[in-house]
Amino acid sequence: MQLRVFLSILSAILIGGCVLTPEPYRETAVYDLTGAKAAKLPAFKVRFEGFNNLTPANRKMLFRQADGRLQESPYTVWAQSPELMLRRYLNEYFASDYMENSTARCEVGGTIYQFDLDSRAKVLRLGVNYEINLRRADAKSAFSGSFSTEAPLETADGAGAAAALSKCAAKLAAELETKLLSLK
Description:
The protein is α/β, with parallel strands linked by helices. The protein has three helices and seven strands, in the order H-E-E-E-E-H-E-E-E-H.
């Protein structure tokens, strides 16, 4: 009987120790977009308005699994939500001092309809509908379009996701630069 009591107490201590021992501290890694360059648009100033985000993506990284389930990464987050990062990236890309004195201005906004970190396919997919409003002293023009791209995830983690999203954002910026240059 004493052996049973002793083994029961020992088991409770061992099990309790496993449950009560906290997981070691792990710092949360924060990832952001990189590599915005300056576009050449001397005809007008470009300003990016808000982007809407129709996807489940937010500051936490969500990786799509093979069965369609979204798995949240507990230790990696974006510096901002995708729509804010994209807006900031594009504003940096199109920022230039020589556009300040222009009489025309261009406002660009849009909706992110796809933002998918696919662990199975090892790609990040970005889909954006955009609208361009060009305001000149003599006229207003509006144009809209849709853009979709993907970039490979070198690694299925935060660093790989940040690198892939930076590539997708650069492709979107180049697409918008081409559209804006055609408006001159």
